[in-house]
What we know:
With 132 residues, this protein is an alpha+beta fold. The protein has 3 helices and 5 strands; from the N terminus they run βααββαββ. It comes from Actinomadura sediminis.
Amino acid sequence: MTLTTPAPEVPTLVLEADERAPSVARKFVAEQMHEWGIRDDFTARLVVCELVTNGYRHGEGPIVVRVFQDERDGLVVIEVWDGGAGRPVVRPPNYAGTSGRGLLLMSELVPAWGVRELNEGGKITWAKLPAE
């Protein structure tokens, strides 16, 4: 006899790809951090804001945000899906530029991040951060 245990539901948010998406995503992540008893949500809010902003500026279609704690290491994982084919890239600092610093800043604040392309199209950009 095989016993199965249902997987816990992962908090998920589906957003329209527009200028309001980063704000809604920040609130969603802050509420989840509070629910888990994580007092410092600054990095989580910054990460989700950057990833969602990239999704609506450079991706396609709706944006899906998922947030969960990795059972193996206890780190918080933020995933942002969009239907675009382009991959986010950390650019070298441009001190005269007015944008393009978000991924560089994020990459300095999190222990790990990356991009997974999906067979069905689009990509998931993810970041792991401490659950403090």
